[in-house]
Design brief:
Strands 1-2-4-3-5-6-7-8 form an 8-stranded mixed beta sheet, with helices on both faces. The protein starts with a strand and ends with a helix. It is globular, with a radius of gyration of 18 Å. Helix 3 crosses helix 4. With 296 residues, the chain is an alpha/beta fold. The chain has a single domain, classed as Alpha/Beta hydrolase fold, catalytic domain (Rossmann fold, 3-Layer(aba) Sandwich).
Length: 296
């Protein structure tokens, strides 16, 4: 299996490599509790067709990458409270650690520089790559993500509850139903999914891996990282921010704040787009990314 141990963080990372080995590299970084397969095959194929080498990978604690077994995350409520009073709770790992994992994957594969593209939590991770490893980035693309500022509008209740709801059981039907419910609550009102197609996608993901224990640890890393606004002001990597105008989980203001925080960033918003990667939008998303990469 394509697994490498990152030389800097020592984490076993599962990855998939597509396209011409000599082409410029796009590194795709996925979000909270999501396997790399949530990047649609159609998007990967479109970017490869545009002449890029595309690498997607499972973050630590999800999919087929290393699990941080036994590590305990503080409850979100306790973590937020401790952070407010100036005594942050100890977390199993940080978002910077996760950014270092991605850079370590590039190093292990002998790749000096790459275009990095992150969605949701993955957007936060690639933002930190730009902050801490600017020499390794050709461009930055932050999709449906945010700065982490507490002043921004919060997620709609139904969306965050669906995403973080505990699983009642781990049998296949229960997990698939949970996945479909998440997709329904965070998805795009302007691009409703086909129920049969969505079920098939969720089923493939469930049969690949089920690991709910990683989500609270990843969530703890997000809360711990806090507001990145001041750090993002130091970013000099050419940046594209893509965001849906109807995102119920990370509101449009999060994308607007990200673009405002990064000098020279370009913001593209799309009406009807929620917090997913709907197939009808793939040509538009791929075109925006490819155009940015060539311009950057």
């Amino acid at each position: 299996m394509p697994i490498v141990t990152t030389p800097n963080t020592g984490i076993d990372i599962f990855y998939e490599d597509n396209g011409d080995p000599q082409a410029e590299v796009i590194l795709l970084v996925m979000g909270l509790g999501a396997q790399m397969t949530l990047w649609p095959d159609e998007l990967v194929a479109a970017l490869v067709g545009d002449g890029f080498r595309v690498i997607r990978y499972d973050n630590r604690d999800i999919g087929l990458s290393q699990k941080m077994e036994g590590a305990r995350a503080p409850s979100p409520a306790m973590q937020v409270l401790r952070k407010k009073i100036g005594f942050p709770a100890k977390v199993p790992y940080t978002l910077k650690d996760m950014a270092d994992d991605g850079i370590g994957l590039l190093t292990a594969l002998g790749i000096d520089k790459a275009h990095v593209v992150g969605a949701s939590m993955g957007g936060m991770i690639v933002q930190l790559m730009a902050v801490h490893h600017p020499d390794r980035l050709l461009t930055l693309t932050s999709i449906m993500s945010t700065t982490g500022s507490g002043k921004l509008p919060q997620a709609e209740k139904h969306a965050i509850e669906a995403l973080t709801a505990p699983l009642a059981a781990l049998d296949e039907e229960t997990v698939v139903a949970h996945g479909i419910n998440v997709a329904r609550n965070i998805g795009s009102p302007g691009f409703p999914f086909d129920p049969d197609q969505q079920r098939e996608r969720v089923l493939r993901s469930v049969r690949r891996s089920v690991y709910p224990a990683g989500l609270p640890r990843q969530l703890a890393a997000i809360i711990d990282d806090g507001d990145r606004t001041a750090r993002l002001a130091r970013v000099r990597v050419p940046t594209l921010v893509l965001h849906g105008e109807d995102d119920p989980l990370v509101k449009l203001a999060g994308g607007e704040a990200t673009a405002a925080a990064i000098p020279g960033a370009r913001l593209v918003t799309i009406p009807g787009w929620g917090h997913d990667l709907p197939i009808p939008l793939i040509p538009r998303i791929a075109g925006e990314i490819a155009g940015h990469l060539r311009g950057g």
